[in-house]
Amino acid sequence: MSIGTCRMMMMTLPLALAADGSAADEKEQATLSLVGKEVFLDSTLSNPSGISCMSCHQPEAAFADPRAVSPGAVLGRNGRRNATSLMYAALIPNMDQEDMLEDDGSQNWVWQGGLFQDGSARTLHEQVQRPFFDHAEMNVGSEAELASKLRRASYAATLKTGLSEAEWGDDAKVANRAYRALVEFLKEPVFRPFDARIDDYLAGDGQALTMQEKRGLEVFKNKGKCADCHFLHATSWPEPLLSDFGYDNLGVPSRGDKDPGLGGHTLAGEEVGQFRAPSLRNVALTAPYFHNGSIASLREVIEFYNRRDLEPERWGPTDYPETVNKADLGNLGLSEEEVTDLTALMEAFTDRSLLRMRERGERFPELVAGTPASWKMRSYFPDWNHSAPPLPPHPPYRGQLLETKTLPTSQ
Ligand code: HEC
Ligand code: HEC
């Protein structure tokens, strides 16, 4: 989000779990995660069959899609946004509001977190359901259809553990089991190794970055203002996620159809055209860039930040010029060398586990020794209590001010 001279932002940290979960819960989590991987790879669930989660979230692209938009199960139907990386996706905070203290002392409410680049899924649990039923993605007709395919899957017996016979007959319960399984899978250590060179550097290893990358880091922190939105410090997780998960309209080049982003579902005019700031972890592997895949390379992304307002003809029209952030980017005054240094720095954000996987031609990254298990980290995940937090009262949501008195007390 745009940061004026001294806006203050708080992130909500999960409360420590009241009691230690039981060994049975730990086992349940492990089982769900195993079956989650099977669901993730299963290309028989789509209608027609043929695509799985992995078709659009490819390991060698850090589980993003190297194509600007992804083709769905139905021939000729394409999505409209660039598929994001699933690395660190289970660490994205739930959609919520934070109060910001403006320069003039007034208080403002801003959205933060949420899944999909427009935050239209409040939680990961809500998010993983949608690709199944999206007509431009897996195109499953109904939860009943999904449940019947799941009951016939090779991993059905594992999916069934923990469900009674009656529950196994209930379509919603069977589908929900698969959603929980996907969430547990995405929380696995392979998706959050924190083994990029920037991690070593931030942990005190001065040799982990080259001289050029160190110069790039200075630009990232100061003249480029990148760290104002792509945080280098830890917030909701013990390690930095390189994002504040706030929303902004950067004025990226239009690809035709207008995409209203955040404002499309909050229905607040000033939020139209805004998208969530992504984590920059593994960004060197996830071209093309921005929510619509409109920019092909990292160097161009940085040239765009640096010179957007000086060369409008180079970038062309944007979807919603009226809400573009003019304060924090567009004319940064970076020299050619600074642009080169900053571009080089982005390589230091790549996890070595993914680089090794690519070098060896393997299909899945290996576990990095020392990455804590999901069970150990359970109170840090936004999904820690497996339920959606109450919708916050501000600002008017879908054009209506919510009734504060009906909301559960905030934690
Ligand atoms: C046809 C392509 C396609 C398939 C199949 C697909 N996805 Fe996605 N996925 C996308 C696109 C495109 C986005 C970004 C959409 C957006 O931001 O609105 C996305 C976003 C996501 C996100 C959100 C990440 C973030 O940064 O907010 C998650 C998590 C995710 N997908 C998981 C899955 C899972 C799990 C499956 C299988 C059940 C799946 N996807 C199947 C294309 C696909
Ligand atoms: C005002 C907040 C803000 C600042 C400052 C900022 N970014 Fe971003 N960044 C965003 C948002 C929001 C997006 C997503 C925009 C979209 O997709 O429409 C983004 C997207 C990106 C992407 C594309 C990632 C992807 O996977 O598509 C890169 C790379 C990036 N930023 C790098 C930088 C660098 C380098 C700087 C400093 C020169 C910087 N950002 C400064 C908010 C910011």
From TrEMBL:
Gene3D superfamilies named in the record: Cytochrome c-like domain
Domain Cytochrome c, first and last residues per copy: 211-350
Record keyword Metal-binding present: yes
InterPro entries cross-referenced by the UniProt entry: Cyt_c-like_dom, Cyt_c-like_dom_sf, Cytochrome_c_Peroxidase/MauG, Di-haem_cyt_c_peroxidsae
Spans through the membrane: none
Keywords, alphabetical: Heme, Iron, Metal-binding, Oxidoreductase, Signal
Disordered, as annotated region: 390-411
Main location group: other
Name of a matching Pfam family: RoxA-like_Cyt-c
Signal peptide: 1-18
Entry keyword Heme: yes
Subcellular location: Cell envelope
PANTHER family: BLL6722 PROTEIN (PTHR30600:SF10), CYTOCHROME C PEROXIDASE-RELATED (PTHR30600)
Name of this protein: Cytochrome c domain-containing protein
